[in-house]
Amino acid sequence: MSDRRIDPVTGTETTGHVWDGIEELNNPLPRWWLWTFYATIVFALVYVLLYPAWPLVNSATGGVLGWSQRGDVAEEIAQVEAAQAPLWTALEETPLTEISAAPDLQGFAVNAGAALFRTNCSQCHGSGAAGAVGYPNLLDDEWLWGGSIEEIAYTIRHGIRNEEDPDARFSQMPGFGEILGREEIATLVSHVQALPDGVDPLSGPGGEIFANNCASCHGDDAKGDRSMGAPNLTDAIWLYGNSDARLVKTISEGPYGVMPPWGARLGEPEVRALATYVHGLGGGEETAAGE
Ligand code: HEC
Ligand code: HEC
Predict the structure, then answer these.
(1) Do domains 81-168+259-279 and 182-253 have the same CATH topology?
(2) Is 173 in the pocket of ligand 1 (CB under 6 A)?
(3) Which of 14, 153, 218, 287 is positioned for an S-S bond with 291, CB 3.0–4.6 A?
(4) What is the pTM of this model?
(5) What CATH architecture is 81-168+259-279?
């Protein structure tokens, strides 16, 4: 540019840019700044060469090192899985009743079972397994279908009253709304409410109706029958509640609790981990009833 000149005060060349009579001096950039700037350019070029950088349609350019964060995570997961593989195999091969004799295996099964429980079971049975109306508490020693580790595993593997698994546990209480009159049901409700207080299940007017309609499943002693999933009615533990209204509904309509099967969904070792976890929650029994 033609109007560059040497500034008389500083002795520096001007750029020729003038604003309002103020001229810009063409001072050189500081050395350190300039070299840092070149260094960042070199760094960027090297980085683009070595690491994933330019976004493409589905991924990014790979970089000559072939590194990726995703690959790192996959490798770590593979390592953990490889470390756990023998334990899962042992879990599948050890008879259920012998797992407790191998503390390492049991510890692994309980931890894995707890994690599986949180993901798959807690929405129905509660995060602490304490259950809710219609969903049994798995912490107590009241069992509908049995509390030995083998019975628990069977229940988890095949589920209850579902149509997905032909081996599901199955027994159905009929609704008595059409079979019994309202008066009879009201009499039964008071009778059933009094059972936990020690009333003889077969005595009195309620006892007669009970003997004729209910004892076949719940037993003459009203203590239930696990082969049918019929609950003990004398223990003050109510799956569906014991208010008048609840009991009228339960007896008139017949309860129909459904539990999904998990064997096909999760796999046998996972079922065993869950059974070990549930069995260890407090209500687990040593042997199957009748053994
Ligand atoms: C969709 C809800 C639902 C889910 C999810 C569910 N359950 Fe259940 N479970 C039930 C119901 C309902 C019953 C009671 C069925 C009955 O009344 O006979 C039950 C019963 C059981 C029993 C038998 C209890 C007894 O007293 O004999 C066990 C054990 C059990 N569940 C474990 C599990 C485990 C372990 C999981 C997770 C893998 C799970 N459940 C997931 C609904 C569920
Ligand atoms: C065919 C067998 C069968 C007969 C007969 C039967 N029950 Fe049941 N009962 C069951 C089963 C199985 C359950 C559990 C169902 C479930 O959890 O879904 C049950 C559950 C109940 C419950 C719920 C208990 C709770 O903890 O909330 C009550 C109450 C009950 N029965 C009362 C009766 C009365 C009263 C009669 C007679 C009028 C009767 N049952 C007849 C099988 C039977």
Answers:
(1) yes
(2) no
(3) 287
(4) 0.82
(5) Orthogonal Bundle (1.10)
138 lines ligand 1 (CB under 6 A): yes
The residue extents of the domains of the chain are 1-65, 81-168+259-279, 182-253
Q: Is 227 close to ligand 2, i.e. is its CB under 6 Å away?
A: no
Residue 229 near ligand 1, beta carbon < 6 Å: yes
SS3 of the chain: helix, strand, coil, percent, to 5:
50, 10, 45
Nearest Cα to 183, choosing from 161, 203, 205? 205
Reading the chain (291 residues) residue by residue, the pLDDT tens digits are 457 889 888 888 998 898 998 989 999 899 999 999 999 999 999 999 999 888 888 888 888 888 888 889 999 999 999 999 999 999 999 999 999 999 999 999 999 999 999 999 999 999 899 999 999 999 998 999 999 999 999 999 999 999 999 999 999 999 999 999 999 999 999 999 999 999 999 999 999 999 999 999 999 999 999 999 999 999 999 999 999 999 999 999 999 999 999 999 999 999 999 999 999 998 888 876 544
Residue 23: its H or E element: strand 22-25
| Residue given tokens 């032909």 in the structure block | 166
CATH topology of domain 182-253: Cytochrome Bc1 Complex; Chain D, domain 2 (1.10.760)
Cβ partners under 8 Å of residue 238, min gap 6: 246
Which ligand has its closest atom nearest to the C-alpha of 215?
A: 2
